[in-house]
Amino acid sequence: MSSSQTTTTNGVVVITHVYPDGNGMGVAGVASTPHCLGQTVFSVLGSFRAGHPKALGTVQIMIGLMMLLTGIVMATAPWLDNIGVASGIFVWGSIIYVVAGSLTVAADNKLNKCLVKGSLGMNVVATVTALTGIILHSLDSAGIMLYCDNPYYFCQQYWVRSQGISGVLAVFSLLEFIVSICVSSFACRAVCLCCHSTPESMVCCTGYT
Question: Are 44 and 36 in contact (CB under 8 A)?
């Protein structure tokens, strides 16, 4: 038959249950309640906020919007000789960045295991997308596919403008890559700590008021 033991340490009451096994030896288990479990999970997920996800998520949204607008401007050029524009990454990549940033901000506002996992998944996708964007925009900045059949003076102006914008997009992609990795690392740590926190390993303490 189980028995309870109560100990007091520095004004904190710790309640433990002792369960006897077949050999008559007592095995101590820590009492836990759903309220305590919820508080512990919330505390573990709180480590996600250490990385300032709201600020990082806002940066992701701004990067996505700026890259979308810049890509639209480049898409209106008279010659479609830009790999980044031809691939459409300025559209679907920007959507991924905005969604990842929105989930990150939502996970910070309403700390929830599902939202943190969603933020982690989308930021992993955003990391891969940003790496792809870095490669494509770097190739465009190097002038791999530039073509122009106008007089050299006009072509030179077009080339400089196109390569400059591609360089800016490459910098934006690099920034998104760094931000996504940062968010992913904090989200991964919070989710892993939460998953490894079992009721058996949690201590429910009640302090005196």
Answer: no
pLDDT digits (tens, 9 = 90+) for 7-25: 665 555 555 655 555 444 4
This prediction's pTM: 0.69
The residue written with tokens 């100990």 in the block is 7
pLDDT digit string (tens) for 57-98? Answer: 999 999 999 999 988 888 887 666 678 888 889 899 999 999
Only one residue has tokens 């760094």, namely: 178
Q: Which of 181, 175, 187 is nearest to 62 (CA)?
A: 175
Amino acid at 206: T
122 neighbors 100 (Cβ within 8 angstroms)? yes
Q: DSSP per residue over 112-144, as a string?
A: -HHHHHHHHHHHHHHHHHHHHHHHHHHHHHTTS
Strand pairing partners for 132? none
- Residue type, position 164, single letter: G
